[in-house]
Automatic annotation (TrEMBL):
Residues 329-522 form the Glycosyltransferase 2-like domain. The chain crosses the membrane at residues 122-145, 174-194, 505-524, 667-687. InterPro entries: Glyco_trans_2-like, Nucleotide-diphossugar_trans. PANTHER family: GLUCOMANNAN 4-BETA-MANNOSYLTRANSFERASE 9, XYLOGLUCAN GLYCOSYLTRANSFERASE 9-RELATED. This is Glycosyltransferase 2-like domain-containing protein. It comes from Urochloa decumbens. It is found in: Golgi apparatus membrane. GO terms for biological process: cell wall organization; plant organ development; pollen tube development.
Amino acid sequence: MAPWSGLWGAKAGGDAYRGTPVVVKMENPNWSISEISSPEDDDEEILATGARRKGGRTKNAKQIRWVLLLKAHRAAGCLASLASAAVALGGAARRRVAAGRTDAEAGVVAATGESPVVRSRFYAFIKAFLAVSLLLLAVEVAAYINGWDLADSALALPVIGLESLYASWLRFRAAYVAPGIQFLTDACVVLFLIQSADRLIQCLGCFYIRLKRIKPTPKSTALPDAEDPDAGYYPMVLVQIPMCNEKEVYQQSIAAVCNLDWPKSNFLVQVLDDSDDPLTQTLIREEVAKWQQQGARIVYRHRVLRDGYKAGNLKSAMSCSYVRDYEFVAIFDADFQPNPDFLKRTVPHFKDNDELGLVQARWSFVNRDENLLTRLQYINLCFHFEVEQQVNGVFLNFFGFNGTAGVWRIKALEDSGGWMERTTVEDMDIAVRAHLHGWKFIFLNDVECQCELPESYEAYRKQQHRWHSGPMQLFRLCLPDIIKCKIAFWKKANLIFLFFLLRKLILPFYSFTLFCIILPMTMFVPEAELPDWVVCYIPALMSLLNILPSPKSFPFIIPYLLFENTMSVTKFNAMISGLFQLGSAYEWVVTKKSGRSSEGDLISLAPKELKHQKTGSAPNLDAVAKEQLASKKDGKKKHNRIYKKELALSMLLLTAAARSLLSKQGIHFYFLLFQGISFLLVGLDLIGEQVE
């Protein structure tokens, strides 16, 4: 670093400032005084005790000032980065508002599958609640400015004018409004504690599994030589890939499945294409033909009518006459890429275990670090697989089938009634019915299958709506069968109270009601109290438990907590739709994929003799890429949108935060402020994929 003149340099024509010349070591950005040395530091000084010390001169005030200046420079750099990020965020928000594209557009409403009537009523309720909150805030601000700080003893005294109206409002609020809010608050707190206890018990179960190293092990494993069916346990396996208009990912999934390490004569691949796009149909059909020419046993099936969505597709495929020759069926969604040893690590669990109906593998994600939205999804799904699925599989031999990356015993499917189109969660439906018929499940936490996470908030919102409306719809249909079924009472109780009510109904209900409705109301009705430990400490503890399976995501614990409360609006709306059988509960929306696997991944999946050629029967990657690019240009453009419910709730929470300042409720203010900002960012669609 060049020496400074003036204050830090030598005087012109005179002696230099006294002190040690400074040499700053900048290898480590965290500068400290110990990292400042002088040229004389190599000299040795003999101390009074006779010991020798290197660097005879001590640090002086100028060196400390230099350290402080460097730290100030670093802090200024951080502030500049934050300022530039804030400016970019503000610019994106301004463009979003100027574009004026909202989720209320007809095409978006149809795509999300939400009922327009329920949507409008729910939004009208939030707007009315916001209007009342703004009115109450204006009243409280006026009372604060005018000093109408009436004590309880003064409420009974006669007062005149506006102060009289304010006193009447206080009496009415304390006598009639506060008791109802307090009752609802106490009820939600009880549900919150029950759900938190359930989560804590699951985490303790996961800790016990790790401590004891409990792991499902097959009684017989397949031998390494997969070309000799008689050498080991290689039963007949049917592999199904249901897909619908997913041209971004079809090639990688077909390639991965065709490269499964299993005797070719003992497994057949069914590509179940429900696409209504002619170009996509052609691409998939040609891809199947290419692999057929390479000797892969793969067939292409297309339905003209998409009756029953995915369940109808699977049901139609199982009706083929050749299915009776197969004992097991493995299912992979279009964006899933199983490892070559997938069947070797899953199918052997069925040998000598006639009660086993399902083996479920864990998901891994190719795009978990793509943006903030995918990182937050990764935290949720890590907890789901590491804790929920694993604990339920070990201790109960039952969990919800994830719809993909699993192997079913075909006899279990037939015994349970097969695939049914009555709900949009056909995977959970078949799992519940199989459980009622006595079949057991195994979850393999160490067997992973690669897939994608939704990268845009719109796609994630659609997915969550389906995942939370379907279970309530299924609960209404399955409840009579659960009650009449001849299984153990504790299994019935687990299905009704834990699997459905607590984890599918109560969780979105209290999350939305407690943190988005009751908490703001307690700011305007302070007679109803919500303890600090409910607002801060317990949610923080639960978020910490959720993030334990993915410790590298710990820096995102606060955004995760706020985002989960933000998503409670969508989940609550979906839960109501499914519970009361509204129109949106029956709509299936395919989650948009990006096709994150690279060309190198596809080449590695191709047969060895095809990796260096681009013509003939090899998958023509360049041609497919050009076709996909052309289809993207010809197709509809994607846009970021404004979500009106989230924006209205952000205004409500920020209004409540402003009201909390008048009564100095510290932790409530910070929670409402950051939660309101979280709703604002989500409402402006600034959290996921940004389309330029």
